[in-house]
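#data-curation
PF: Archiving a pair of folding outputs for the training set. Convention for this channel: one message per protein, sequence first, structure tokens after, nothing in between. First:
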Amino acid sequence: MGILKKSLLLLSILGVTSFALAQDSVIKERTKLFKNGKDIGFITILTPVDVVKKQAGKVTIKVKGYRLENYPQMILRDIKRKELYAEFKDEKSSNESFKTVKKHEDDYGEIWHEVEGVFTIDLKNIAKNPDKLKLKAKKTYEQSCSMCHHLPASNAYTVNQWPQQIESMMEQVTLDPHTKNLIIKYLQQHAADSK
């Protein structure tokens, strides 16, 4: 009986560890979201997700975020920090894909929905090593953005200010969309108000 209890305890610890690792998953690149086999939108690079199930080259993920009641197609990190997590092709796809956990009113009287939804993506689009991807983002920022001027610290601007700062530099340096989005997401996740 003692061996059985120890085995069950070990299995439960392993199960908790696997679940904890699943919560630390991030998206490796801009990726199409599927619901019932239909392409309904995309999820952005470095967006955190919970891995629910892996099967045959596909992975089922849970996405959590916030969306404006009047514009439900965009899922953001939260009400104040407008880091884009996902965007849907139309309002219907978004409404059918998410359940509202709670409603919130912001300082301007706008209603926000705290939401979560489950989607399927290709397994290859989950970063195998999130820390390695984040380090790549940091190095890409440092190399790309220090060529012309002093490199601002990642916490020099807020989550909402960084996209505009990077866009303003696009006249001086050419970045492909993947690299630009990687840098923006890295900076948003290390911004002055990111915690």
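PF: Second:
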Amino acid sequence: MSDCRKKGVFELNQKTEVDARGLTCPKPVIQTKKAMDQLTSGIVTTIVDNDTARENVIKYAKSQNFRYEVKQADGFYYIDIYKTEVMFDAEIMPQPKPKLSEIVILVGKNTFGEGDETLGEVLIKGYFYTLTELEPYPKSILFVNSGVQLTVEGSPVLEHLRLLESTGVEILSCGTCLDYYKIKEKLAVGGVGNMYAIVETMHKAKNTIRI
């Protein structure tokens, strides 16, 4: 290894392409972030096919203080994002475990938002997918009323909830609610809690987000 590399030099030595054409929000940004995280230094070119995706990827680049360039060709946008990293001759350290915040999320139904139920089903999947991509993760996620339907077999977000649980996030479903919907035996992630445990968890949290 050269002396200049030991002292630290800026290098751009990798190029990655993310084809996000046809993907809905927030996937273009998430895939771009994953590609950037894998780079020590280099360029990620994200290709998108609409103005909203372009602006969202640009906002991500700005938020991380990455330099970027946007080109347009054949009806598509090509966003070049540059990452530089000081290289050191140092021992590789183990990856730390994901951090948990003091936030608790209370899920009161099996869709996201008010209005069209079909849209709400799409949004709830997008919400939990995005939640797995952002740190720090919440300390606990509490499910009540029809929200408990998201923690049982066949849930569209089961994979995401299991991933969150594996990082230390507490997943707790209301036992009364599971009984009401007759689905307690189908519980596939997390544990069963009573109202006391749910209220206690919310009281101990610095902030509770209800969706």
